[in-house]
Amino acid sequence: MIRKKLIAGNWKMNKTSADAVSLARELVSAIGSQSDVEVVICPPFTSLEGAAKAIDGSLIKLGAQNMHFEASGAFTGEVSAPMLRALFATHVILGHSERRALFGESDELVNRKVLAALKNQLRPILCVGESLAEREAGSTLKVVQAQTERGLEGVSRELAPTLVIAYEPVWAIGTGKVATTEQAQEVHAFIRGLLTKLFGDPAAQKVRILYGGSMKPANAPELLAQKDIDGGLIGGASLEARSFVELVKAAAAAS
Ligand code: 13P
After folding, report:
1. From atom 5 of ligand 1, which residue's Cα is the shortest distance away?
2. Is the Cβ–Cβ distance between 19 and 41 less than 8 Å?
3. Is the distance from the beta carbon of residue 10 to the nearest atom of ligand 1 less than 6 Å?
4. Is residue 255 part of a domain?
5. 105, 99 in Cβ contact below 8 A?
6. 75 assigned to some structural domain
7. pLDDT tens-digit series, residues 6-21
């Protein structure tokens, strides 16, 4: 397998900076020196600096949960790619369904962010996924295709292998309802096919496609065993060291 599995923790709007530092330290002592699986933690902006210091010297990487596409300027409340880079962030989650649904982010906006991230040597974790109504209407693949193609417009073949895509069915996020392995693998393989059309097979084979949506230590082994599931974007189970560490171990076992 040419793709190293990737487990990313999306802490969402959780943890004060002190709590974030303690969790990051716990993770460093448990999994800070393993290299079988790539591990990224994505704390809120206010905890990035503390978390960066806590993971310094370990193999754990740092990601943000969002960013603005401009480098600086009059954008009250926003944070830019160079600011994230200055805190040693290497990844940024973009187009999460919560940002799309609650903050009105369009594919066009997400695309500008993807391009800005790449320009600043940040790896985008582009989130795509259908709602329950869309799945029931039979439009899952159409929705995922539009979000993927529009989100990646203008990305070069050279930079394509650095992308990470997260398939997160909206109906599975925070609900305890996990997609079946067949449902997830079908969409992951479909996304890989889209990437092949956009960037060619060698690049598409290098892109990690993560599953997100109620991934837990109990359901992870089966999901991670699928051919095109290269890891997980973990919400709830990333907020506690024990479950997150178990997920990393499950990914190592599936490698
Ligand atoms: P849960 O793991 O809590 O379902 O969240 C998934 C998610 O949205 C990760 O970005």
Report:
1. 235
2. no
3. yes
4. no
5. yes
6. yes
7. 999 999 999 999 999 9
Give the pLDDT confidence of 21-73 residue by residue, as tens digits: 999 999 999 999 999 999 999 999 999 999 999 999 999 999 999 999 999 99
Q: Which residue type sits at 186?
A: E
> For residue 233, how far is its CA from the centre of ligand 1 (angstroms)?
7
**Is 66 within the bounds of a domain?**
yes
Start-to-end CA span in the chain (Å): 8
In a domain, 1, yes or no: no
Q: Which of 99, 100, 173, 240 maximizes ligand 1 atoms within 8 Å of its Cβ, making it the mutation to test the pocket?
A: 173
Confidence of residue 108 (pLDDT cuts 50, 70, 90): very high
The catalytic site residues sit at 96, 168
Write down the pLDDT at residue 61: 98
For residue 74, how far is its CA from the centre of ligand 1 (angstroms)?
31
Q: Give the domain CATH number at 232.
A: 3.20.20.70
- What pTM value is reported for the model? 0.97
Assess contact for 98 and 60: CB atoms under 8 A: no
234 lines ligand 1 (CB under 6 A): yes
**Torsion on CA atoms 17, 21, 23, 27, rounded to nearest 10:** 150
170: CA distance to ligand 1 center in Å? 9
